[in-house]
């Protein structure tokens, strides 16, 4: 195994495929997948103090305040399993978060980030989010149009058959709010990282496997 660092950030609108791609990429690169959304949802499910603070923002499709999210991400990135890199999914989402991440990387003496922008048209994003279903047992991400996926039915993975559910923020009102928040607060990061010469664009249209086939070489060539 090489000792290269893969410090990857996946940028993209909600529904661009960050979660699915981050999982696949982290397996391929053998580095952890870090999703601030998953960490926050875990905190809400466990009923922790962090979860109580975050829940209202998440249900409305708004961003959780920077100081909370920056603290979570900083703590996670300092853990030993991130020494060879990570795939960050859903962080940073604002310019102050990007600045904090840059400072944390400097303090930890890390190599530069590689930021991938997964670009997807808005109609396709709404289609993906409104049909998205997740499995409580295997954490699989599916779509209601996928073979074997039905509302109220089990996980289509025959080895799992866990309970499928829809995220509370994948309902129409929250989707609209999340897209507006993305445009206003997160999209400026494309410019922020582009100016720093660390951004690579990967088209996010197509099947998960097709996107992964574009993403892996883009990361390997640039890291
Ligand atoms: P995600 O799973 O990445 O779509 O995140 C779900 C929700 O968690 C978001 O809509 C926000 O409410 C919250 N969240 C996750 N990551 C962040 C972040 N970096 N900054 C602020 N809020 C976040």
Strand content: 15-25%
Helix amount: 40-55%
CATH C-level category of the domain at 6-121 and 197-213: Alpha Beta
- Say which molecules are bound, naming each kind only once: adenosine monophosphate
| Estimated radius of gyration | 17 Å
How far the N terminus sits from the C terminus, by CA atoms, comes to 15 Å
Number of helices: 9
CATH architectural grouping of the domain at 6-121 and 197-213: 3-Layer(aba) Sandwich
Mean pLDDT over all positions: 94
With strands numbered from the N-terminus, the spatial order across the biggest sheet is: 2-3-1-4-8
| Overall number of strands | 8
CATH superfamily of the domain at 6-121 and 197-213: P-loop containing nucleotide triphosphate hydrolases
| SSE string | EHEHHHEHEHEEEHHEH
Instruction: Please give the largest β-sheet.
Output: 5 strands, parallel
What structural class do you assign from the helix and strand content? alpha/beta
- List the uncertain runs: none
CATH fold call of the domain at 6-121 and 197-213:
Rossmann fold
């Amino acid at each position: 195994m090489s000792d290269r660092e893969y410090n990857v950030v996946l940028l993209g609108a909600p529904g661009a495929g960050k979660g699915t791609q981050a999982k696949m990429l982290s397996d391929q690169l053998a580095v952890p997948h870090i999703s601030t959304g998953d960490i926050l949802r875990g905190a809400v499910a466990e009923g922790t103090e962090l979860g109580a603070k975050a829940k209202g923002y998440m249900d409305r499709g708004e961003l959780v305040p920077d100081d909370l999210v920056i603290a979570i991400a900083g703590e996670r990135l300092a853990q030993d399993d991130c020494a060879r890199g990570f795939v960050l999914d859903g962080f940073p989402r604002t310019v102050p978060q990007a600045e904090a991440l840059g400072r944390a990387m400097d303090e930890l003496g890390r190599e530069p980030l590689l930021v991938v922008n997964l670009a997807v048209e808005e109609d396709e994003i709404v289609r993906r989010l409104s049909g998205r279903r997740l499995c409580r047992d295997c954490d699989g991400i599916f779509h209601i149009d996928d073979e074997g996926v039905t509302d109220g039915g089990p996980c289509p993975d025959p080895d799992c058959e866990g309970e499928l559910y829809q995220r509370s923020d994948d309902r129409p009102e929250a989707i609209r709010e999340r897209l507006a928040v993305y445009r206003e607060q997160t999209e400026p990061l494309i410019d922020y990282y582009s100016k720093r010469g660390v951004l690579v664009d990967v088209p996010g249209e197509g099947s998960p496997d097709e996107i992964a086939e574009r993403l892996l070489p883009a990361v390997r060539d640039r890291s």
